[in-house]
Write a structure and sequence with these properties.
Blueprint: H1 3-20, E1 23-24, H2 25-33, H3 40-52, E2 56-61, E3 69-74, H4 76-102
Antiparallel strand pairs: 1-3, 2-3
Length: about 110
């Protein structure tokens, strides 16, 4: 998948996942990677920015096998951001779909 396409949707995907449950970073990468290829190098800068912007908060929890894990949970501000992003995404994808269906055929008479 095109890197720029992935960058454009990763924020909304991560917020969507965090709406459902609290995740630690590697777990989030694993779940998302079942659908969209991504790496830990992609997720941690995004989660750090979300934390700085108040969209998520973190806490440490004991791990069964290893050091404590840092979990991320969405905040009320993060939920609002997610809902706004979904509205924008729906408008955007409708517009792209319309362009692909109606404006996708080049004018060969010119």
């Amino acid at each position: 998948m095109n890197v720029q396409l992935k960058k454009g949707v990763m924020e909304i995907v991560v917020l969507s996942m965090l709406r459902r449950k609290e995740y630690y970073g590697y777990e989030l990468v694993t779940d998302i990677s079942r659908y969209i290829e991504m790496s830990e190098g992609t997720i941690y800068p995004l989660l750090n920015r979300f934390k700085k912007d108040g969209l998520v908060e973190t806490y440490l929890a004991e791990s069964h096998n290893g050091p404590p894990r840092k979990y991320y949970r969405i905040t009320a501000t993060g939920r609002e951001e997610y809902e706004e992003s979904v509205r924008e995404w729906v408008q955007f994808t409708k517009a792209v779909k319309k362009l692909l269906e109606e404006g996708g055929t080049p004018n060969e008479s010119n």
